[in-house]
Structures are given as C-alpha cells and as structure tokens.
Amino acid sequence: MKKDKQDTKNWRQKLATLALFATPIILLAYYFNDHPYKAEIARRTVSLSQYSREQRLNFITAARALDGAVIEPGQTFSFNAKVGPRTGSRGFVPAGSYLGGSRVSSEGGGICLISSCLYQAALLSGLKVKERAAHTTCVRSVAPGLDATVWYGKADLKLVNAYKQPVQIRCDSEVPGVLAISFYGTDAMKSQAKSLQLRRRELAFDGRNLLVEVYLEGDNHNLNKQNSLISRDSYRLP
Predict the structure, then answer these.
(1) Which residue range(s) make up the domain with 94?
(2) What tens digit of pLDDT does each residue of 166-175 get?
(3) Which of 62, 131, 177, 191 falls between 20 and 30 A from 24, CA-CA?
(4) In 166-217, where does DSSP find H-type helix?
C-alpha cells in the first residue's frame, strides 16, 4: 500500500515537472504558428517634440484608447466610438486645434494628428476606408491629402477590415518623443500589404486653394486595381 502511494506521488511529481517544461514550449508554438497578431503589417510614426505639453497629453490619451483595439473580419471600426468624447473626465485637456479653418483651443485639441497617422497606417495595411474627412485648410502637422480630421459627433474616421482574419491596432512610444501607430495581423497579411505605397499628386494651385489627389499603389487582394485613387481634396491655403 505504501509503495502504491509512493508511486502515485512520484507520478504526480513527474506530471508537474512535465507541465512546467511543456507549457512555455506550447505557448511559444502558439505564438509563432497560430498567434493572430504576430506580424506588423504597416506602421506610421510621428515626432511629438514640436507640439505643446497639452497637445502631447491629448495624443497619449487618444493613443491609449486605441492601443490593443481589435477589428474583426468585416467589422467597421470607428475612431470616435473607440476614443470617445473629448472631455476632461476622459483625460483630455484644452489645446490648439483647427476648426473650420481657424486656429482654436478645444478639449482634445490636436488629436487629428493621431487619426491622420491611423488613417495612413490603415491604408498601408490594406484596410478599407468607409468614412474620412479632410481639413478645410492645410495644416502644418500633416501633408495635404494624408490627413483625417475628427470631431466627436460631426467628423469620424471609419475603417473596415476586409481581411478574413482580425487585425489589431497598437500604439507605442519605444523611441522617446516618437509615437508609432501600427496594425498587426498574420504573416500572410504582411506579405499581401508589403508593396503598398501612398503617392500624393498636387493638381492645382491658384494662390488660395490647393487640390490634392492621393493614390494607393501596389498589389493587394483588397484592391480592385494596383493604382487606386483614394481621395481628391481641396484645401484653402493659410
């Protein structure tokens, strides 16, 4: 009887030891073979050094709200729904922003830089854009045609995941003073989107207005053709 108990104890110890060593191996195998967000599809970065303390605080608050967000296949992602109202209770502070072409101070001011960065990363990742609005005036922070203004309840950035697998948004500041916004997915997604590039074309300039076209060039299964016209926007010059 004592021998049976000792054998059972020894067997349990062996199982525990096996589980201790096997678990990390299983987790690593999952990450490298089945993890849905192991590959960075595309990334856009922005330097924060030229912005005010209040604007940087709004950038970080918005980025924290976006970080880790998952967009399921066929799902529409809304920037405004994810970030929420730009209020003090949500961590936003008054800062410089553009409203109707004028420079004003508003809660959450400046986060159009974040939505613009997300917009560009989404295009380069092969996502589809369901809704996007350009500024009415050229802004210093983003090249005309590559901007995406957001105003809660009025202007939104909406993206659609056209892939058959989910994608994840990640925001990080591994480099001091630099914020990066990326989309993560599978190796197959990365391979499909690796050739995508954005090209701007300034069509008209009359001293007061600027007309800009943006094309997404490259080969991706989500595009009907290799060179797709993404937007045509008119801006008033400051």
Answers:
(1) 36-194
(2) 999 999 987 8
(3) 191
(4) 187-193
